[in-house]
Fold this sequence. Notes:
The chain has 127 residues and is of the alpha+beta class.
Amino acid sequence: xxEHIERTSGxxxxxQETWFRGRFDSGEMHVVLYDGERVGSISVDREPGRITLAxxxxxxxxxxxxxxxxxxxxLLAEADAARIPVELRVLKGNPAKRLYERLGFVQVGEIxxxxxxxxxxxxxxxx
Length: 127
């Protein structure tokens, strides 16, 4: 993520450490394994009426293998079953935004260097 952050707002080690440590205070963070190797992490905040994809990181050698897509699709399936939206914030200029758009997210706002995106639940037959 460093290259995207540097391009958007500049890199400050202290600021990034503060942000990173703050991510461990909320939600659930899970290590992503692929063929038994740690290749990334996903952080999710669940609230009544909404799921927030707080962060997803896949190590560069493992990108473009469908891992991120599968993780997000799993979260969307959970949200669809509960009939609630999924929200996220993505750094402006981050190529991951194309993945989110492909999966049905639309931009609903922006905050400084971030685009705010949302994907409403797909309405199926009542269960």
